[in-house]
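lol forgot to send this yesterday, sorry. struct tokens for the thing we talked abt
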């Protein structure tokens, strides 16, 4: 039987831990036998998990007999890794054990050196921090999960379930994974490459010299802006503006404008029943087709699919009704 060890570290996110325990623990084979043995291991007999306490039963020695190790996130993403954990994970990896993280559990894997040179993701709020703190990691902020064979990572919350179902499918095939997804009342078809629903270019973004112009863009993104318009608002040359944007945001100025427009569109899709055409105009896109193209590129779903996920408003027929 395949043994899954969920590693409960101090201040673990209980949801992440429960996702692994419940998803793997309820998988059955076609003949009714359980597919996995699930063990919760920890650095202490009792581990705090927010307002909860988790009794672990076994210590780090359990990692030695695991076929798969799941590392849930912790409420403080970059909290120091307890003594012995990184060493135990490295030893398990060297022995061929599959190791996966849920949410900000990726920081633990990165601290152990298991993500060096590997594709990895985490909750979108922590991707920048992961990239800064561990520059050898190839951080992919827009995906639900990554699979490097023996080392896997996932984004936050529901993406951890997607990753668990992905591993079940790898282990036992589509039929067993489909049954597991039905038990979890979750879709099986979300692939790792699907984008996280990220809040683009939030208005609270802080930079060294662009504060005022970012506020100006926030207030004027609905207008047909040009690079010259933004440079004028920033009281600088286009060349200097472009250099500062790349240095302080990692984006070109017009790329930033598009991100703001996408975020404004997300808000309207969530809170209004305006047509796609109307929203495209409201947020500053030159045409509905350009809006659809840019939105899908950013979110990996169409505007109507996004609306169906995040609002109570039904989509318009073919997204073509103008209001």
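and heres what i got for the seq, position by position
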């Amino acid at each position: 039987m395949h043994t899954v060890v969920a590693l409960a570290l101090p201040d673990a996110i209980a949801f992440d831990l429960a996702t692994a325990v419940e998803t793997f623990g309820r998988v059955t084979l076609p003949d009714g036998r359980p597919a996995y043995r699930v063990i919760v291991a920890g650095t202490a007999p009792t581990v705090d998990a927010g307002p909860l306490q988790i009794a672990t039963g076994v210590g780090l020695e359990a990692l030695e007999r695991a076929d798969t190790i799941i590392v849930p996130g912790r409420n403080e993403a970059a909290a120091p890794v307890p003594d012995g954990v990184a060493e135990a994970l490295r030893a398990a990896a060297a022995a061929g054990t599959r190791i996966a993280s849920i949410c900000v559990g990726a920081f633990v894997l990165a601290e152990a050196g298991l993500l060096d040179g590997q594709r990895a993701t985490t909750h979108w709020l922590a991707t920048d921090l992961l990239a800064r703190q561990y520059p050898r990691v190839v951080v992919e902020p827009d995906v639900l999960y990554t699979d490097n064979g023996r080392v896997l990572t996932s984004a936050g919350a529901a993406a951890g379930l997607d990753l668990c179902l992905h591993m079940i499918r790898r282990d036992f095939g589509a039929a067993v994974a489909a049954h597991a997804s039905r038990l979890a009342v979750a879709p099986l078809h979300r692939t790792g490459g699907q984008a996280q629903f990220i809040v683009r270019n939030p208005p609270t973004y802080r930079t060294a010299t662009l504060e005022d112009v970012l506020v100006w863009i926030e207030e004027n993104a609905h207008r047909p802006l040009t690079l010259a318009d933004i440079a004028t608002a920033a009281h600088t040359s286009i060349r200097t503006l472009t250099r500062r944007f790349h240095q302080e945001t990692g984006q070109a100025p017009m790329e930033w404008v598009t991100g703001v427009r996408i975020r404004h569109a997300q808000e309207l899709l969530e809170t209004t029943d305006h047509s796609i055409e109307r929203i495209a105009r409201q947020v500053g896109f030159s045409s509905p087709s350009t809006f659809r193209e840019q939105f899908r590129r950013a979110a990996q779903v169409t505007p109507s699919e996004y609306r169906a996920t995040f609002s109570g408003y039904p989509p318009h027929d073919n997204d073509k009704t103008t209001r």
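Residues 211-319 form a domain with the Arc Repressor Mutant, subunit A fold (CATH 1.10.10.60). anyway ping me if u want another try
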